[in-house]
Amino acid sequence: MHNDIKEVLISQEEIANKCKELGEQLTREYDGKFPLAIGVLKGAMPFMSDILRYTETYLEMDFMDVSSYGKGMRSSGEVKIVKDLDTKVEGRDLLIIEDIIDSGLTLRYLVDLFKYRKANSVKIVTLLDKPAGRTADIKADLIGFEVPNEFVVGYGLDYQEKYRNLPYIGVLKPEVYGGE
Ligand code: XMP
Ligand code: MG
């Protein structure tokens, strides 16, 4: 285990099994369709890669980078588009792929934006759901794991851009972020 990690919440093996299961579910969900899979950078990158390798439909991939966090640990409530899609979403079936839903502000914003752009359907798959953090009215269609109200890192999730490369989801030691 990495020296900065207090506890592993979800192991590499649990993540791998879940990704296969979710990917297979998406195959059934989008059977006969040609969805546009939208990864929310940067956190969703490993998750997107791991679920879509088990999704056996035609699909297209694109990426969106939005920020509501800056470098801190709390949502600012403001969502900024850092990188927009290259693909037109009008009439498309969209699958938004996220690492974690906390306040839900990021996804609320994205779903509204894609509806405004006249997407045919918008679904959400998230690796982690932190229901205790929710302030916006948003629910994922597919969820990997529920996590407690703690700041988690690894498998795409960062603290100050570090730990995205850990193969598991863990909780940081408080001394790493100057906590109690
Ligand atoms: P909201 O609050 O808009 O947040 O649902 C979504 C984005 O916030 C980040 N986030 C976290 N990142 N550990 C992280 O490394 C966490 O516990 C955490 N909670 C929220 C994340 O970037 C997510 O896409
Ligand atoms: Mg994110």
UniProtKB/TrEMBL annotation:
Q: What is this protein called?
A: Hypoxanthine phosphoribosyltransferase
Q: Give a short account of what the protein does.
A: Purine salvage pathway enzyme that catalyzes the transfer of the ribosyl-5-phosphate group from 5-phospho-alpha-D-ribose 1-diphosphate (PRPP) to the N9 position of the 6-oxopurines hypoxanthine and guanine to form the corresponding ribonucleotides IMP (inosine 5'-monophosphate) and GMP (guanosine 5'-monophosphate), with the release of PPi.
Q: Which cofactor does it need?
A: Mg(2+)
Give the matching SUPFAM superfamilies.
Answer: PRTase-like
User: What GO terms in the biological process aspect are recorded for it?
Assistant: GMP salvage; guanine salvage; hypoxanthine metabolic process; IMP salvage; purine ribonucleoside salvage
Identify the residues that the record assigns to the Phosphoribosyltransferase domain, covering every copy.
12-160
> Which family does the record claim for this protein?
Belongs to the purine/pyrimidine phosphoribosyltransferase family.
Q: Which UniProt keywords apply?
A: Cytoplasm, Glycosyltransferase, Magnesium, Metal-binding, Nucleotide-binding, Purine salvage, Transferase
InterPro entries cross-referenced by the UniProt entry: HGPRT, Hxn_phspho_trans, PRTase-like, PRTase_dom
Q: What Gene Ontology molecular function terms does this protein carry?
A: guanine phosphoribosyltransferase activity; hypoxanthine phosphoribosyltransferase activity; magnesium ion binding; nucleotide binding
Identify the metabolic or biological route this protein is part of: Purine metabolism; GMP biosynthesis via salvage pathway; GMP from guanine: step 1/1; Purine metabolism; IMP biosynthesis via salvage pathway; IMP from hypoxanthine: step 1/1
Q: What is the lineage of its organism?
A: Bacteria, Bacillati, Bacillota, Bacilli, Bacillales
* Catalysed transformations (reactions): IMP + diphosphate = hypoxanthine + 5-phospho-alpha-D-ribose 1-diphosphate; GMP + diphosphate = guanine + 5-phospho-alpha-D-ribose 1-diphosphate
Q: Which Pfam families match?
A: Pribosyltran (PF00156)
Q: Recorded E.C. number(s)?
A: 2.4.2.8
Per UniProt, subcellular location reads as: Cytoplasm
Q: Which GO terms describe its cellular component?
A: cytosol
